[in-house]
Q: What sequence folds into this?
């Protein structure tokens, strides 16, 4: 596995979201423009996006199940993981039914029937909730995060805190403080530099949730 990616689920899930939401949007548009040649073209593209999205969803569920059983987590994050998993399964079933409805509706040159449209609209909403819960797994509970940044050590210019520059800056013109032995007494008594941060061990979850929960 790639060192910075604890599992493949975050990489695969984007294909499911993009393909299925695009399919739903194109079916709606093709229904609105069914009387025009553009409606037929959008219907064809929508069907392909739906088919590929369902195939991607199978891989997404498989990698999600692997992540659910292997990523380090605690009890609160486990609760959210389980809710996310249930929504994911329900959403997948919704789009699987939509794919079946699209197959039965294949005789239609443009647009979608009422059953297919209802499944797509509900499925798109459920997909949004599932994605939101997945984002909470990472951004609220820190699942799969190997390390967290020290936010108090970096300030962008223009913010309320004091600005800083990346890298070491050159000494001002005419100043002798940058030359060894030529600075003032205060320069000679410079404070010792802060110790370098210790990198976490490979595979360790430095600031994420503790692995206090076992399946």
A:
């Amino acid at each position: 596995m790639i060192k910075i990616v604890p599992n493949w689920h975050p990489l695969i899930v984007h294909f499911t979201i993009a393909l299925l939401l695009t399919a739903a949007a194109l079916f709606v548009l093709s229904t609105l423009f069914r009387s025009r040649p553009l409606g037929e073209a959008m219907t064809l593209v929508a069907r392909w996006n739906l088919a590929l999205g369902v195939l991607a969803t199978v891989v997404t569920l498989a990698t999600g199940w692997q992540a659910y059983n292997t990523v380090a987590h605690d009890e609160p994050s486990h609760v959210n993981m389980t809710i996310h998993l249930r929504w994911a399964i329900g959403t997948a079933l919704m789009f699987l039914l939509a794919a079946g409805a699209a197959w039965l509706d294949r005789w239609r040159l443009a647009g979608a029937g009422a059953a297919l449209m209802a499944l797509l609209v509900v499925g798109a909403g459920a997909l949004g909730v599932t994605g939101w819960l997945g984002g909470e797994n990472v951004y609220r509970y820190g699942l799969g995060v190997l390390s967290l940044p020290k936010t108090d050590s970096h300030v962008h210019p223009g913010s309320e805190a004091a600005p800083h520059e990346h890298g070491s800056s050159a000494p001002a013109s005419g100043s002798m403080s940058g030359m060894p032995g030529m600075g003032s007494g205060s320069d000679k008594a410079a404070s010792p530099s802060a110790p370098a941060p210790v990198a976490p061990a490979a595979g360790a979850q430095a600031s994420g949730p503790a692995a206090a929960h076992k399946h």
The helical segments are 9-32, 37-70, 75-104, 114-139, 185-188. The first helix runs from residue 9 to 32.
